[in-house]
């Protein structure tokens, strides 16, 4: 697979038949089993009522091959394709625990889920990911297995696997950035990683503190304490893909890349700071999406991305509540809580995207922010679910519902929330001299509409609220809060929702 090799957890091949696959274990995840195993499976079922509900490992004499069986449960109307992904992951977990190095995964068909084959392969690849620091520090452990073979009855098997590898390469990049600890993926080292990866894209890095202070003042406020430590100094990394044909649409993505969130002066206490190196998974997802763009090379889609990489440090230089800071768009923002740094670090880059969309008259622009932004999103949606919020223009195009449907069909489910006037009113300045109050002093999980309010803030501080349906230049804008779907520490990052975004906007 050429340049993809370094972004895939092991070699992957399509097998034509079990006997000549060269595998050392057969992994089965559904009740569609080879004819050679029917008698043995029925025998096991005759005395083991749990056989179709737990993972088992045994030897098939007819195939002369060990077998791992990771059954899919009886499906209800409310299951989705993640059931197959989870079963594939469990089968490989068991195979690895047993010491096998070259599993063959039997990919099922499903009338219920049309993308089951692609999603099952992706579920297996996700389980095989090894964190970047372990790969670098202990090369002998850079792979969990040596080779994965997949047996797919679909005549388009080769195409399915090829697509899975492209999508997985994006998720691999997102996991690398997301899982890296506060030093391994500090802003300058993210810049280094990105520069090595995206040689085919235009990469522009803004790191000069004077430029940041002048042009990205809200970001610069968050960066102020970290800037005194060279290895922690912030970066805004712009990536651009220009298609070979005239663009029919433009995607503009801004990702929250807080490499470590202490909470700043409003410091996180009571043990809740652990895991805050994952607060960069929004920017990680944007980088992963750009990897997919780089590989797919869409003919007529122009893509511009910004990774807002910053550490929310605490110290004598940190920004504090009650400061009034004027945003790039000229909006006077009073800081209410320094732990609401995510909206601060993205706003000016989002404003820059808005300016580019308007000034360059880009075709069909759609702006996005992607962030592990609020605990409220976790409470509202539950673990594993992203939340979509469209502005009025994107909502008129029914974008959120379409993305939700696509996400569900590819194992990246969304819940849809609506931005309302209440959310804008909540942010309105309380005294003369301020236009917007950045945050209240309750946790988002205890704030009514705690995940919608930041979306309104991002519109108000950038001037996007002036680009609605009745404006001279309507702009589509979507905020994705992935706090609940990015992967809870210490689990591996999921890289959600880049597959859904790629399927919705690059196909």
TrEMBL record:
GO BP: any one term: proteolysis
Source species of the chain: Musca domestica (House fly)
UniProt-recorded name of the protein: Aminopeptidase W07G4.4
PANTHER family, per the entry: DIPEPTIDASE B, ISOFORM A, LEUCINE AMINOPEPTIDASE-RELATED
Cellular component GO terms held in the UniProt record: cytoplasm
Keywords linked to the UniProt accession: Aminopeptidase, Hydrolase, Protease
GO function terms (MF aspect): manganese ion binding; metalloaminopeptidase activity
Gene field: 101897444
Family recorded in the similarity comment: Belongs to the peptidase M17 family.
Pfam families: Peptidase_M17
Domain Cytosol aminopeptidase: 337-344
Highest rank taxon of the organism: Eukaryota
